[in-house]
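ok so dumb question maybe but i'm new to this and my supervisor (M.) told me to 'just get the structure for GIY-YIG domain-containing protein' and walked off. so i did the thing. is this what she meant?? sequence i used:
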Amino acid sequence: MSRVPEERPPQNRFYCYMVRCANHAYYTGWTTDPLRRIVEHNAGRGARYTRMHGPVELVYVEEVENHIAALKREAQIKKFSHARKAALAAENPLPEAFRS
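this is what came out, is it supposed to look like this??
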């Protein structure tokens, strides 16, 4: 039986993210690499919604413990009103590593 190490290596990080679409709507998802995912969305290889309403701009990113936590946080944010999503993005500036 293998043991799971206490510390995850950097490549095993999980993030919940939010983008603002061209129509000013917010799209929320999760990924292991937010910058790669934004490129995918803008290249038409993302979710159907972002393909139809792109290009997108990364406005919020939050590192979470694992993929289950990412799914839960994604579901929580998706229930927020447009105003609450805008406030979440405004109150949490992107970390330097995720700014374009």
